[in-house]
Every structure is written in C-alpha cells, then in structure tokens.
Amino acid sequence: MALSTLAACIILGILPLLWLPALPDIRSIWCVIISGCLLACVRPRFLRYGGITLLIFAWGVLNAMQALWPTVNLPGSNRQVEVIITETDNMTRHQAKIVSLNGKRLFPAAGITLYGQYLPVPICTGQRWAMTVRVRAMHGQLNDGGFDSQRYALANHLPLSGRFSDARLIVPTCSWRADYLQSLTHTLSPYFWRPVILALGMGERSALESPVKEIMRQTGIAHLMAISGLHISLAAMLGGVITRGIQFYFPANRVNWALPMLTGTLCAIGYACLTGLQPPALRTAISLSVWATLRLSGRLWSPWQVWLCCVAAILFIDPLSILSYSLWLSAFAVAALLFWYQWLPMPAQQHWLMHSSMSLIHLQIGMTLLLIPIQLSMFHGISLSSLVANLVAIPLVTFVTVPLILTGMLLHLTGPPLIEEVCWYLANQTLALLFAFLRWLPAGWINIDARWQAAAWVPWLMLICWRLSLWCRIPALCLTCLTMLLLPLWRADRPGEWSVHMLDVGQGLAMVIERNGKAILYDTGVVWPGGDSGQQLIIPWLRWHALQPEGIILSHEHLDHRGGLESLLKAWPELWVRSPLGWAGHAPCFRGETWQWQGLTFSAHWPLPKAQMQGNNISCVVKVEDGQHSILLTGDIETQGEMAMLSHYWQHLQSTLVQVPHHGSNTSSSLPFLQRVEGKAAVASASRYNAWRFPSLKVIKRYREQGYQWYDTPHQGQITISFSPQGWEIHSLRDQLLPRWYHQWFGVPNDNG
C-alpha cells in the first residue's frame, strides 16, 4: 500500500470526530474493529482501504473516550491528587497534569486548570504538588459563531477545571525551561519590546499587552508573533547550516549528505521542547521528522504527498488535534501555498533583486486571497492592510528579527555576554521599527458576516476556472458554481417571521429580538475585570449574523444585566436605551409605556413610575407580541414584585413564552405568576457552575408541573425562538442545531454549583 494512500485513510478515519453528535459505545467500537480487521485482510484494494479507515476511526474514538474518562470519573467529590505544573500566570491561574490519583499513578495524565487561588509558596512550571482538589468537568458557553471553549479544552487536553482546598509542595525544582525563561526574562528586562521577543523566541504570549495585540490583529501579522512552523523551521535551518559548515573541515569520505538534515531536525525538536511543546511547535517538529524520514527513503515525493503524510502523522499521534483551530489554519495555509504555486507559478525574472521582490509580492497576494475562507470561519473578518503589513513584516521578522533572537537565545547559554547584548539590542530595534510602521498604517480590520462564507471560495474557483480554461469550455457550470457561492448574500426576510435569541452569556442575561435584519437587545450580559459580554460576545455575534441593533432595553442596574452596555454604545452610539433607572439619555420603561418596532408591539408592565422597590424588583418587565404570539421578558423580578404586578395588572400578562425571572432563583417564579402567564415554554439564562446553584430544581419542577417546556443555557447553550404565522418553535444550539460529542454536558448530571 502506498504511504500517501495510508495517510489519506488516516485523515478520513479521524475526520468524523469533528461531526459525530455522540461517541459510539464500546460494543460498537469492537464491531468496528472486527469489521476493519476483516476488510483489511481481503483482496480488493478499495475494501482494504476501507478496513484501514475503520481501524483508524476506532483509534480516534478510543482516544476521545480516554480524554473524556477524567470528566466521568473525577468530578463529584474531593480528590487526593499529585500534579505537575505545566503553565502558570504566577498568580491565581495554573495549568497542571494529574499524575497520581488517590496514591495510584494516572496514565495518561489528565490536564486540569486550577483557578481563583494563590499557592502558599512561589510557583513555577515543573514543580510537583500534592493537593486536595474539587474537580469539575469542562463546560463552556456556546453561541452560534462564538468561541467554542469545550472544543478548545479537549483539543488542548484540558478536560478538567477545579479549586484546591489543600496544597503541599513535594518537588520544588522548576523545569529547565522555567529556569531558562526566568534567566532570559531578567536579561531582557531593559528592553521595551521584551514581551514580543519572548513571544517570538519562547512562545510566551501572556505578557503581550492589549494595544500590541490589537495592532497585530488590525494589520494581520498575529501569525508571526507566536511560535509557529516558521520559527521551528528556522531553528532547523540554523542547525543544518552549522552542521554543513563543520562538514567542510571533514575528509570527503566522512561527509554524509543526510547529517545536516538530521541535525536540523534534532535542533527543531529541541527548540520545540524549549518553547514548551506548544501545539504549533509540536506539529512542526512532527512534520519535519516526517519530511526527513521521507527524504531518507530515497524516493521522490511530491509536495502534496508530503503534506498528506505530515497531516496524517499529526492526527495519528494525537487524534484530538482534529479539533484544534490552529491545526486547521496551519494545514489550510500550507495547502493554499502549494495550490498557489502549482496553479499560478511565479514567472522567471532575470535580476535576482527583482525576482525576490516579485516573489514576495506574489506569495503574499496568493496567501491573502486563498486564506480568506479559513480567516472568515475562524476570525469573522479580514485585514485590508495585511498585504502591505506582511510585505514588510515577513522578511523583517523572518530574516532579521527571529535569527537575531535565536542567536541571542543560543548565546545566552554559551556565548559571550557582549555579543548576546548586541543581538538583543538589534532585535529590539527591528521590532521598534516594525511596530512604528504598523502604527503608521491605517486600521484595516473589517468584520464580515456569515453570509460571505461561501463567497470567500470565489478566488479558488476563479483560479481553477482560469487555469483549466473552464470559462471557455463549460461556462454554464462555472456560472452556476459562482451563483451558488454568491447566493447567500441575497438573504430574503420572510414576511411575518421574527426571532428571539437568548445568548449564552454565563451568569447574566442578554436577549436579542430580531426582525428584518434589525435587532433590539434586552439586557447586555455581564462585566468582569478587563472585559464584558458586549465586547467579547454580543457585538461579534450581531456582526456575524448581519444584524443592525437599534435599541437596548435595560431591565435594571445590576452588572450581570448591564455589563456590556458601554461597549455596545461605543460600537453603535446611535442606539436608544430604555430603562427604569432614570439615567441621562434613557427613555422610561415603566408600566403603561408602549411602542412599535418593525411591526411588533412592546408593552411595559412593571415597575410603576413611582414604585418604592429597589434592586431586582425594579426590573422592567416587557411583553413583545405580534398579535398572535408573544414572549414576556422579566429581568430579575422576584416574588414581591410579581405579586405586586399581579394584584392589579394580571389580565395583560398572558404570554406564549416567558423568560424565567432571576435566572431560576427560588425567590422568583411564584406559582400565581406562572398560572397567570399561562405560557407554553420557559427559557432561563444561567451559568452552569454558579455559586447560587441557579436554576433551582424546585423552580424547574414548578414550571413543568404547570405545563411549561423548560430550556436553560447551561444545558442548551444559545436558545433561539422562531415565530411565524404558522406557529413558533424553539431551537437549542447544544443538542439540536449543533450536536457534537464535545458539546455534551460532561461530569455530574445535576452539578450546577
């Protein structure tokens, strides 16, 4: 069997892990293994390939089961564990590997994130601690088009989080990487661009400040500022060049052509270890090892065969890397590079300087055009200034800054201090020059909505059609394909339809009422040090779904309901705001207020204009209706407010659906309130691991006994209610619209605290 065919079987066997709604049980896996073994032994080649693919599929599923084992067996009670620290912010957040559970070795070690507590002595990576921990299975907020934290956690082998009640240091020795990093950080302390140097040389991005990250995002050079294939390849090249230089002093019969390649590969692996074996660095080290092995085989391998073998090796060694966004980005970028140079090669130039300049421009144009699909899918936007920025940044960083940093890192171990200082000074100056140029460029980032995802493939289609002359041979097919790619841009709003989206913002509330491409928000989520729901979630969500917000209804002043208000008003200053707070610029939201928007009627039912209540009970209760269906938005109103509202105004509260008051607290959702509303379904917003254990089991039971369907964001993620003249329906993202095995509710079934 050809090696490239085996690589294709490996890739096809692992790919289903991206889309499986649930993992098969162990009996099904045994059936798959037996079937695969039988097919792999038969004579027809295609059946043999199918059998190998089935065996690889079983291998991938077994790895996924192994990764989920800690989420099933460790949560629920205090555990006595021994951990090795793998990463730390030197304050309250640490990543570790659980190597021992209740005195027994745990293999493979389970990754865990410890948060919220200081350890009793200074911490560094490599230390071994004995701890009493309360373990929780990973659980993340899930919104359409948002960051998938559960997928990220599994891709990085961090299925657990937790807090410790007792910690005792067993082995105080730091890892050699931690000692080296500490020494290097001290040496670089006089230099302004130290955080960027550490990011480029050691992969330490945590020290990068927000303004620097924003510049890199706006100009599209963030890919250069982390340990990537480029850096590892440069380390390999440096090792190979040094070895080749030494070989000039060897007798001819002692010169081995493979030695520089092997030395370079070993240097790449060593450098990847020095940078902490971060996923991009590890993948590059694996790819270089595969490439070296293929070269040593003595056969001629095409670039696509090498690409297949490298991707297959990465997936076979770590099947869960199929969930990694960075792997998809790296593999897609290399594939685009191969495609561009094969389908539109660079014309030959006589002058070397002209050839080098045109080659760089040719490369950057190709990568800019062909990477648009993956950029839109992952980042929901593109940088218009990336072409110019990368034309300067790529050669400067690749051929000047990174070699200076690598030389400085090598000299930090062995070389004269004076030459090392020269390297750091020059590296710092090149970065100063680079960022001065980047600041001079206009902000080029533009956000692009989901409708353009298909249209992003147009450059690929045009290049194929042009190169194969398909425009002349089969113009109808080309035009049909182009039309299908552009069709989503013409979104027709269906008359009479509107939607309400309860976003999964954790322990807060943010709802979007959508109609005809416009939106009104009811509450704006939570705020935390350094960020808020508006900036991190709501604004990107609105832009990704091509919705234009026109107003905000603020139920009350608590930070879990108005956390994103300032960010939203900064993004759209023309937004109107209604609230019961009486703040400057806020329109009133009191009993008796009614208004129309996009054919929908909004009516406020609480509070009274001069109500003496405070806090949760001042929440503005709003009913949204289209004449046939309605939803009652209640904020955080509690029993006292509910009863006061019912005492005089109960006849107007009947509604099809209700937003559960106060996140499902037992101090709200009184029985008379539920009976008066007479709704069909209830939707609640809460965080799974919240200190108040919302929503209350008693409240859930109360709603169900009154005939309500129950939905909540901890279980369903984003919840969307669609209304039409024909009726209404609820779609939940976690278990209906996007069911994936890595989106499931892991750990203790009723654990919500």
TrEMBL record:
Membrane-topology annotation of the record: Multi-pass membrane protein
Record-linked CDD domains: ComA-like_MBL-fold
Bilayer-crossing regions: 49-69, 220-242, 257-277, 298-317, 323-341, 361-382, 388-411, 423-441, 461-487
Keyword entries, A-Z: Cell membrane, Membrane, Transmembrane, Transmembrane helix
Protein name: Competence protein ComEC
GO biological process: establishment of competence for transformation
InterPro entries: ComA-like_MBL, ComEC_N, Competence_ComEC/Rec2, Competence_DNA_uptake, DUF4131, Metallo-B-lactamas, RibonucZ/Hydroxyglut_hydro
Lineage top rank: taxon: Bacteria
Metallo-beta-lactamase domain ranges (all copies): 507-688
Keyword Cell cycle tagged: no
One Pfam assignment: Lactamase_B
Organism lineage: Bacteria, Pseudomonadati, Pseudomonadota, Gammaproteobacteria, Enterobacterales
GO terms for cellular component: plasma membrane
Subcellular localization, as worded in the UniProt entry: Cell membrane
UniProt main location, coarse: membrane
Keyword Membrane included in the entry's annotation: yes
